[in-house]
DNA sequence: GTTCTTCCCTAACAATCGTTTGGTAGATTA
DNA sequence: TAATCTACCAAACGATTGTTAGGGAAGAAC
C-alpha cells in the first residue's frame, strides 16, 4: 500500500461550496472569456484569494472542464429523453428546440462559454468529450431532418447540412443575449423561434 | 515648433506590408482568440520576431482596432449602398443578407473576431465605434422589419426584436463555419438562408 | 481537552506576457 | 562615396500569469 496523501477534497465530499465556486467561475468565464479571466478575478468574485481556489480545484482548466461536463451531462439527459420518445420528425424538432431553450435558461453561462471556447478546446485531449458531444448532436439533428424530408414534412429543396447549421445556430446563439428572468420564458422563446424556423417570417399569400 | 521625432511609419506610407501583417494577425486572432494570441505567435506566422512588429504598430490592441475598423468601414460602404437604393422591405432584407454573406466571404477572419470579442471590447472608449456600428445596424434592420410588417409582407404576430435578433444571428454565425472557396458561393448561401428565413423549413400544406 | 479536519490566508515561485531600447544589414538617396 | 532610411534582430524590462508551500483559525470528533 502506498502512502495515501489524502489532503484535498477535489471531487469528494461537500459539493455545495464547490458548486458555488463553479457557478461564480462560470459567470466570469462567460462574461470576460476564459483566457481573459484570471484566477484572481474569480477569487475576487468569490470573496477569497487566488491561492485558496486551489484547495477546491487543482487548476483553472479543471474548473472549465467541470463546468462544461456538468452542462453537457444535463443537456444530454434532456436530449436523450426527447429522442427516446420516438416522436414524429416535426415533433422531435420542436421538442429538441424547446429543450435547448430550457438548457439555455438553466445553464446560460455554461452555454456561452461552450459557444465561445469549444472550437479551440475540442482538439485538446482533455476536452475530447466536447467533440464527441458535437458528433452526437449533429447525428441527432441530421437524422431528424432527414426523417422529416422523407416524411415530406420538411422541404426537400434545401441543402440539409446548411439547414442543420441554420437550425443549430439560431437556437444556441440566443444564449448570447438571453437573460433568465426576462420577459420571455424559455418556452415562449422556443415557440417564436419554432414559428420562424418552420414557417418563416414572410406573410403567406 | 516642437521636435518632430519622426521615426516610425505607423500609419503613413507603404501600406502593403502593413496590410499583410494585419491579415496574418487577423487570421491568428480569429483562430485562437484575441487574448489567447500572443504577439510572438503573430510574429512567428509572419516570419519575424515579436519586437519587430512594433516597428509597424504601436501595440497589439492597435492591430485589433485597425482590423475591426477596416472591416466595419467596408461593411458600411456596402450597407449604405443597399439602404440608399430605397427598395421595398423584402428586397431590402434580401439585399442586406446577401451583402452580409459577401462581407463574410471577404473578411471572414475579421467577422469571426468581431463576433467573439466585440461584446467585451465595446465598453472600452477605444472601441466605441463598435457600439456605434451596432446601433446603426440595429436601426437599419428594425426599420426594415417594421416597414415590412406595415406593408404586410412580414408577419405581424412575431415579436419584432426577437425577429431582429433571429435574422441577425442566423446570418453572422455563418462566419464560424464558412470557408471561402468552398462549394457554396456567398450568393448561393444567401439564397438558401433567405429561403429558410422567409418561408421556413416546413412543407406548406 | 486534545486532536483532526476543513477552509482559507500569506507569500512567494517560475514562466510568460506586451513592450522598449539599441543596433545593423541592405537598399535608397544625395 | 557618404549619408539616410527602411525593416528587421537581439536582448532585455517590469508586470502579470497560474500555481505552490506552509501556516493558522475555527469547529467537529473523540
Would you write up a description of this structure?
2 copies of one chain form a homodimer. Chain A is mostly helical and 205 residues long. The first copy, chain A, has a domain at 64-199: Tetracycline Repressor, domain 2 (Orthogonal Bundle). Helices cover 67% and strands 0% of the residues of chain A. The first copy, chain A, is built from 9 helices and no strands. Chain A has helices at residues 15-32, 39-46, 53-56, 60-84, 89-106, 108-121, 128-150, 160-172, 186-199. In chain A, helix 4 packs antiparallel against helix 5 (89-106), helix 5 packs across helix 6 (108-121) and helix 5 (89-106) packs antiparallel against helix 9 (186-199). Chain A is elongated, with a radius of gyration of 20 Å. The termini of chain A are far apart. Residues 1-8 of chain A have low confidence and may be disordered. The A-B interface holds A 31-33, 35-36, 90, 116-117, 119-120, 152-155, 158-159, 162-163, 165-167, 169-170, 173-174, 176-177, 184, 189, 192-193, 195-204 and B 31-33, 35-36, 90, 116-117, 119-120, 152-155, 157-159, 162-163, 165-167, 169-170, 173-174, 176-177, 184, 189, 192-193, 195-204. The first copy, chain A, binds a DNA duplex (30 and 30 nucleotides) through helix 3.
Amino acid at each position: 500500500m502506498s502512502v495515501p496523501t489524502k489532503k484535498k477534497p477535489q471531487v469528494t465530499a461537500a459539493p455545495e461550496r464547490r458548486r458555488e465556486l463553479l457557478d461564480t467561475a462560470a459567470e466570469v468565464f462567460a462574461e470576460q472569456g476564459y483566457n481573459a479571466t484570471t484566477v484572481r478575478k474569480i477569487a475576487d468574485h468569490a470573496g477569497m484569494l487566488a491561492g485558496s481556489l486551489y484547495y477546491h480545484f487543482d487548476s483553472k482548466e479543471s474548473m472549465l472542464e467541470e463546468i462544461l461536463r456538468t452542462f453537457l451531462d444535463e443537456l444530454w439527459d434532456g436530449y436523450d429523453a426527447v429522442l427516446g420518445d420516438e416522436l414524429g420528425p416535426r415533433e422531435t424538432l420542436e421538442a429538441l428546440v424547446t429543450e435547448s431553450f430550457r438548457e439555455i435558461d438553466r445553464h446560460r453561462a455554461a452555454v456561452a462559454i461552450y459557444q465561445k471556447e469549444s472550437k479551440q478546446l475540442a482538439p485538446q485531449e482533455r476536452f475530447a468529450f466536447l467533440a464527441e458531444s458535437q458528433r452526437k448532436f449533429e447525428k441527432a439533428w441530421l437524422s431528424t431532418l432527414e426523417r422529416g424530408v422523407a416524411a415530406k414534412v420538411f422541404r426537400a429543396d434545401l441543402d440539409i447540412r446548411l439547414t442543420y447549421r441554420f437550425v443549430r445556430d439560431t437556437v444556441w446563439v440566443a444564449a448570447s443575449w438571453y437573460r433568465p428572468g426576462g420577459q420571455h420564458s424559455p418556452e415562449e422563446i422556443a415557440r417564436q423561434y419554432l414559428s420562424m424556423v418552420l414557417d418563416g417570417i414572410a406573410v403567406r399569400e
